Amino acid sequence: MIRTLACAGVAWAVLGVAHADTVSVAVAANFTAPMQKIAAAFEADTGHKAELSFGATGKFYAQITHGAPFQVLLSADDTTPARLEREGKAVAHSRITYAIGTLVLWSAQPGTVDAKGDVLKSGDFKHLAIANPKLAPYGAAALQVMENLGVATALQPRLVQGENIAQTFQFVSTGNAQLGFVALSQVMADGKIRSGSAWQVPASLHEPIRQDAVLLMPGKDSAAASALLTYLRGSKARAIIQSYGYSF
Predict the structure, then answer these.
(1) pTM for this prediction
(2) How many Å apart are CA 246 and CA 174, to the nearest integer?
(3) DSSP characters for 185-224?
(4) What is 101-205's CATH superfamily?
(5) What is 146-195 written as a DSSP string?
(6) What are the angstrom distances between the C-alpha of 239 and each of 4, 6, 122?
């Protein structure tokens, strides 16, 4: 009897491997660190592998509309997945909100950014980095913040644009820009700012950064793609997401 059960266990294990699949996922750059952890947990728990590509949401939209074979998109906004659904590039009613992002004004240098963000008004810096607002929702939110604070025109000559939020973070972390608007997830570890100085931007100063995921048409028959969207709503993924400063 013990031998029979052991054999059955091996059979189930082989069956599980046979049904494991790989899902191609386009991931907004701000979600790089948490998604890497989620992908590892997803593979350990389901056997499915997530093949990740990171970049600007706007660029992914262009690639998808031109036939890029991504199966799932984790966007930095909620408008791009909705648009893809309307255009028939994504499966209808497959959208989920996997996170709500937080914008932060950050400098790699301690003491540069004050707790209220008044450095934007004092102008005690040469360059301010933001993500391209035409491609990256975090960049669009940064512009809204500056407009609402009444400093957008004055700061325009000092702006340097990253193609996406990852490049924007690189500008600031290397000191090429003294400060910049980045995603809280990029500078947070264990619920604290890892280094430098930061101002967590009040949500009232910009439109919510609601980040939606959607099942794209190349993934409509993929068990791995559907499993990943389900996994993102699970407790393990949500715990990882919250640990990087996102809310729901």
Answers:
(1) 0.85
(2) 25
(3) HHHEETTEE-SSEEEE--GGGS--EEEEEEEBGGGTT-HH
(4) Periplasmic binding protein-like II (3.40.190.10)
(5) HHHHT-HHHHGGGEEEESSHHHHHHHHHTTSSSEEEEEHHHHEETTEE-S
(6) 39, 34, 38
Q: Helix, strand, or coil here: 143?
A: helix
User: At how many degrees (to 10) do helices 137-149 and 165-173 cross?
Assistant: 60
Partners of residue 130 on adjacent β-strands: 161
- The DSSP call for residue 76 is S
Query: What pLDDT, in 10s, does the model give residues 193-240?
Result: 889 999 999 999 999 999 999 999 999 999 999 999 999 999 999 999
Residue with tokens 């980095």: 129
pLDDT by residue (tens digit) across 146-193?
A: 999 999 999 999 999 999 999 999 999 999 999 999 999 999 977 788
Q: CA-CA distance, 217 to 198, in Å (whole number)?
A: 40
Q: How many residues make up the chain in this entry?
A: 248
Q: What six digits make up the tokens of 211?
A: 């980040």
* Domain limits, CATH 3.40.190.10, in the chain: 21-100+209-243, 101-205
CATH number of 21-100+209-243: 3.40.190.10
Contact partners, residue 80, CB within 8 Å, separation at least 6: 57, 58, 60, 61, 73, 212
The C-alpha atoms of residue 74 and residue 97 are separated, in whole angstroms, by 9
Residue 166: closest CA among 245, 84, 57: 57
DSSP string covering 14-40, please? HHHHHH--EEEEEEEGGGHHHHHHHHH
